[in-house]
Amino acid sequence: MTAWSKPRIIDRPVSRLGNILTTTQKEKTRDRILGAAEQVFANKGYHESLVDEIAEEVSLSKGGIYFHFPSKEDLFFSVMDRLADRLVSKAEAAAAQETSPLAKAEAALMEVLLRLGKRRRLARILMVQGYSMGKAFEAKRVEIFGRFAEIIKANLDEAVKAGEIRDVDTAIAAHVWLGAINEIVIRWLYEGTPQPAEAAESLRGILIHGLVVEEPTR
Amino acid sequence: MTAWSKPRIIDRPVSRLGNILTTTQKEKTRDRILGAAEQVFANKGYHESLVDEIAEEVSLSKGGIYFHFPSKEDLFFSVMDRLADRLVSKAEAAAAQETSPLAKAEAALMEVLLRLGKRRRLARILMVQGYSMGKAFEAKRVEIFGRFAEIIKANLDEAVKAGEIRDVDTAIAAHVWLGAINEIVIRWLYEGTPQPAEAAESLRGILIHGLVVEEPTR
Amino acid sequence: MTAWSKPRIIDRPVSRLGNILTTTQKEKTRDRILGAAEQVFANKGYHESLVDEIAEEVSLSKGGIYFHFPSKEDLFFSVMDRLADRLVSKAEAAAAQETSPLAKAEAALMEVLLRLGKRRRLARILMVQGYSMGKAFEAKRVEIFGRFAEIIKANLDEAVKAGEIRDVDTAIAAHVWLGAINEIVIRWLYEGTPQPAEAAESLRGILIHGLVVEEPTR
Amino acid sequence: MTAWSKPRIIDRPVSRLGNILTTTQKEKTRDRILGAAEQVFANKGYHESLVDEIAEEVSLSKGGIYFHFPSKEDLFFSVMDRLADRLVSKAEAAAAQETSPLAKAEAALMEVLLRLGKRRRLARILMVQGYSMGKAFEAKRVEIFGRFAEIIKANLDEAVKAGEIRDVDTAIAAHVWLGAINEIVIRWLYEGTPQPAEAAESLRGILIHGLVVEEPTR
DNA sequence: AATGAATGAGCATTCATTCAT
DNA sequence: AATGAATGAATGCTCATTCAT
Questions:
Q1: Beta-carbon neighbour count of residue D130 at 10 Å?
Q2: Do A179 and B184 touch (CB under 8 A)?
Q3: What is the pLDDT along chain D (218 residues), one digit of tens a residue?
Q4: Would you say A196 and A119 are in contact if contact means Cβ atoms under 8 Å apart?
Q5: HSE (CB half, 13 Å, CA atoms) of B33?
Q6: Whole-angstrom Cα distance, residue C135 to residue C138?
Q7: Burial of C125 (0-12, 13-18, 19+ CB in 10 A)
Q8: Who among A172, A183, A208 is closest to B199 (CB)?
Q9: What is the DSSP string of B87-129?
Q10: Is the distance between the Cβ of D63 and the closest atom of strand E smaller than 7 Å?
Q11: CA atoms of B86 and B82, how far apart (whole Å)
Q12: CA(B18)–C1'(F4) in Å?
């Protein structure tokens, strides 16, 4: 935050370089729409959100929305993508902070959990609303979860190579982790407790413990 | 009206035992509707399923459906409940076969996983469609998952007491388990692989391993 | 008219013969819709007619219309067909009154002309509105005109055989006749004059004269 | 605005002759639009043609179109007028080649028929699309047909005076001729056969024959 | 118990037109 | 002269629900 306060990228550097470095007015409006849509969709779900409401939220006419997005459906997808992009970036950044593969995986996981735990809206859209539509939509949720799973899996693979964890099916493990997060977050969303941050420690214990080398006798 | 005033031959068994042992015609129709609805909902999701379609499926008129169920919403809930009831029973039965608490929990979990893995329809409705509606509906999914979580948790609690597993937050553990199942099943639903039965072993390894006593050094 | 006053077909003879002789309630409503649609379409043209208006005209809800017709487009086609059917019947009946082939053709032609000349609504829909839409619709107009042309042509063919008229291309002749009617009626529709009935004599003279073998004295 | 205040080099020839001999840039663009519109309207009909499409066709923005034409409706009218003007000129030129009144009328008629027969686009717009709109538009078609009718009628009147043809109602006769052309062309448009050029001889035979005083030997 | 015709509120999408630049 | 983002009125169609029989 503070870092941003000094040098700033100028809003409309009209240069011969074209749009490479600039954010056009059109893009800004598009972004405002995305923001408003995110809010409305998170609050009311896809079906109960009206294009009119989103338009009102951005102080734009309904037609204005349709100038930027071909359909309500497409708009929803764009919202999901934007959220996922951000979350993936954060998760990757968190992973980059760590050195050991297992720690990287763990960091990514926790980053996602805690971030979802802080932003109900984000959580609602990513975890829940993705299902709210026909077949076409469900695929989107799967796609996005897949992206997260990839990150986790890649690190787990490294961890296996490094001998940090047992030689389990890392793809399944990655989905187990995500599934766990999903469930915890949803439960929080609907029952209000426990907050993801509170559940984090137990969750980490169970998940990590499930993979580490020390073969339990049982 | 007038036609009804005369005595008519009733085609359903009227016994003094009341409805305890008999299945009235009405109940049979209700059940047929439920079955048809289950199919349609599973295939097309709540919003894309039309009451007309369900009616057609049961060879009943739309009005006929409404004689048995007050609303489409209610019908959907009933379908979910019926499915959940059955699944819970199976899970409990599976648990009853085992003796050690951990084994009971594990058995219940696996039963659910494998059963979902065998019936896409069941899985789709329970795992996915529950979200497909407004706020009111989402709660249903949470409620049902809660029932499963309860069973798991109860057994895990016993397992803790028995010293079979570490003293973790069993509520969270239960949800981790369910979340894992959920994710694996959804992935299978959309990507077709791995089949739950195939993933079962890895899954079991990871989840059980995450709880058992043998403290790993890490 | 008067003929109808005595013996009448009963509205709902519920017999074992089923619907063969009866007009069901549904069919009556369908017919009322057709009538209202005919009026609205004739007055305002296809595009400027609203389904709402038609509904209002029949005192039915918009949904009611859609219960009977799958789309506005289909409704319009049905209106055209109904009108064409009637007109074709009349034309055939008129032809049947005559004995010589040429007289038959002539009678059919005149019947159509005069009937259109009496009912602006009929004329507007058949002659003009058929074009009011995309490709799909234009074909309808062509189809209907084709039906009329067939009748004329068939009789002209006979007339040729009978030596009543010259051996011209009867298909073209039939279309010339229809084109002439079309133009006269449209002109009347828009300029109000001359009324088809007034133009009939001149028209007949020109058209028949164009075909007969020798200078007819008539 | 400020930029415009300075004197600028004008790229269009400004002569004292005004616009009589020069075609301004603006007029050229206007013409290009007209050409593109003609194409689009002919292909898709008025309602299904979008201003956007026409704009794209001319490589102009939608706003650009509106700088030259006040409305889509007006643009369509202009297209019709342009086409009609050309066709009228040709018809008149063709008539001027002949000497006898009847031959003049006949020449004009044939010119129109054959020219329409060569250019589907022209035919579609003039014969069919004129109806494609509300009341206001239909009048245009009537107006244009009226112009053609006038030419025919004037010559027929002369022919009557000259004793070439019978003393029929020339207004009606003119419309009969046009109606015949109309129908033949439309039939060709939709059924592809016979081509106007092929039908011309039969058509001429029937129409002329319908007017001439005695059985023409021709 | 069931039918099926009818309701009516609901809504996404279209597109000609405008206007600041 | 031209752009293109934005407007906003317009409207066909859907579908859960009702209700007279």
A1: 25
A2: yes
A3: 333 444 444 444 444 444 556 778 888 999 999 999 999 998 888 888 999 999 999 999 999 999 999 999 999 999 999 999 999 999 999 999 999 999 999 999 999 999 998 888 888 887 766 565 566 667 788 888 899 999 999 999 999 999 999 999 999 999 999 999 989 988 888 888 888 999 999 999 999 987 776 544 44
A4: no
A5: 27
A6: 5
A7: buried
A8: A172
A9: HHHHHHHHHHH--SHHHHHHHHHHHHHHHHHH-HHHHIIIIIG
A10: yes
A11: 6
A12: 75
CB-CB under 8 Å, B213 with A210: no
Q: Considering the domain B80-209 in this protein, what is its CATH number?
A: 1.10.357.10
Give the nucleotide at minimum CA-to-C1' distance from D53: E15
Read off φ and ψ for residue A193, nearest 5 degrees: -155, 150
CB contacts, 8 Å: C191 with chain D: 142
**Tokens 């069901």 label which residue?**
C24
Whether residues C184 and D176 touch (CB distance < 8 A) is answered with yes
Token duo for residue C38: 């005919």
Sign, CA torsion B64/B67/B71/B75 = negative
The answer to whether A66 and A73 have CB atoms below 8 angstroms apart is: no
C-alpha span between C114 and C111 (Å, rounded) = 5
- Tell me if D183 and C145 make a contact (CB, 8 A cut-off): yes
Whether the CB of C66 is less than 7 Å away from nucleic strand E comes out as: yes
By the 10 Å C-beta count (0-12 exposed, 13-18 middle, 19+ buried), B191 is classed as: exposed
Q: Report the sign of the C-alpha dihedral through residues B35, B137, A177, B109, in that order.
A: negative
Give C151 CA → E1 C1' in Å.
54
Tokens of C5: 């006053």
Q: Which CATH class is domain C79-209?
A: mainly alpha
Cα separation, B44 vs D100, in Å, equals 76
Nucleotides of E under 7 A from a protein CB: 1-20
Q: Taking the domains of chain C in order of start, what are their residue ranges?
A: 79-209
Structure token digits, residue C193 = 């004059």
Nearest DNA or RNA nucleotide to D74 (CA to C1'): E16
Compute chain C's Rg from CA coordinates: 20
CA distance A192 to A196: 10
C1’ E6 / CA C60, Å: 8
**Chains A and B lie in contact, requiring 3 or more CB pairs less than 8 Å apart:** yes
Summarize pLDDT for D39-57 with one digit per residue, the tens.
Answer: 999 888 888 899 999 999 9
Are the beta carbons of B202 and A175 separated by less than 8 Å? no
Choose the CATH number for A77-209 among 1.10.357.10, 3.40.50.1470, 3.40.50.720, 3.40.1180.10. Answer: 1.10.357.10
Quickly tell me which residue has 């069941």 as its tokens.
B122
For residue C37, give both structure tokens. 């649609």
